[in-house]
Amino acid sequence: MAVASAPFPELIVVMGMTLRRSEGSLWRHGCFFRYWLANAVDLVGSGVTQVALPLVAVVELHVSVWQAALLSFAQKCPPLLVSLPAGALADRHRKRPVMVGAALAGGAAFLVIPLADAMGRLSLGLLYGVALVGSVAEVFGSTARISLLPSLLPRSRLMEANSKLGGINSLADSAGSQLGAVVVTALGAAHAVCLDVISYLVCAVLLGRIRTHEPDVARPGRKTTFRGEIAEGLRYVWSHPTIRPLVLAATAYVAVMAFLTTLWPVYLLRRLHYSSAALGTTLSVGALGGFCGALVVRPLVARYGPVRVMLVALALAPFTVAPLLLATPGRFWQVAVGVGMFVQVGCAVAQGSTQRTVRQAACDPALQGRMLATSRWVVYGSQPVAALLAGAVGSWYGLWDGLALGAVTLAVPFLVLRLSSLRDSLPDSPPGSPSSVPSDVPRAAAAVLEESPRSHTCPHDESDVS
């Protein structure tokens, strides 16, 4: 494979090939449809909890800004603690049992909240524990799930698949937020979490019905340890000319967003006097922005190239917080904040789908799980620190000052990517154009990517989904 002269031939071919219509619809791929639907169901339930959990803490338990930050810390800490073991586990074992087991564990954790409320035992400490356990289960499940996708489909379909997943995830998140607002109003915040429990069970059933072939990972002759495999994943990501700058830019972006999302729910509920319905509507509008971002990302990448798409999306991010900083109580500013969140989430989904496809296509298949886990460990490991920092800034300087600081700092991810070596690894011109493809790349890359269709065929009838 001619990688030396072209640091990233795979994406050149992938971006060009994913736009071909002759490969057949992914909706007729039964296993992908179940995978896609499981993601949607999972996101609907999580959207309900995204509305309900802050309301349980802020409205029912009357937590302080610092206590709300600690709850956010409990949700965001597990990626730092268990991402690396989760990646090694995903590369060592079959991914489907890990996905199903994680879904069942997450459902069991969140079931504790409505049960404790019914018994009058609901407390902040219990919320911390549920958030921690649920997030640990999510890390193991999502690591196995995302690293399964390159085994489920040929690399030439990854951009299309990630776009479809991004679109339905945004719609499902929107539906979950709206549903959460309705159910919270009707049943109360604690009992609304029951919908998330049901979604975990449905997700487990759907994932359990995926019967794709998972290729055996070739092991070196020498015996490797769990720690050694984790270290191999760390070295691989850090030394990769394409994956490393993407991970660094994503780390900066996720850290700043974790800082902002720790503060803005409290700001909306207490300073702008949002109701539960208004909070759910704002979240759902943002999720619809993500759906629109997923719709436009493929043609944008095809026309302008992956680097330009990611840079523009990151450049717009700081401006999307402006309506929140200018807002006062009232319907007009609720609409303005919703528009800002619409653009923010749309840009996040567009650049996120692009960078995920880049990393999946560039990565050695034997290291998919560890690459993903290492990326998550670095990227999402910044979240708990950012959440604690947000709590400190919000408590000492005020919520508005904290949000303003976060808005300014959102320029950092753009600068990290813009000043990185990524332009040397990815073409600036649109994928597939003659100027973007070195003369010695297409045949070598195509040889790698033209996999046998049987390796990505669902054992069930591929026409079982119309």
From TrEMBL:
Residues 451-466 have a biased composition (Basic and acidic residues). Residues 434-443 have a biased composition (Low complexity). Gene3D superfamilies: MFS general substrate transporter like domains. The chain crosses the membrane at residues 98-116, 122-148, 246-268, 274-297, 309-326, 332-350, 377-397, 403-420. Keywords: Cell membrane, Membrane, Transmembrane, Transmembrane helix. The keyword S-adenosyl-L-methionine does not apply. GO terms for cellular component: plasma membrane. The keyword Cell membrane applies. This is MFS transporter. It comes from Streptomyces luteoverticillatus.
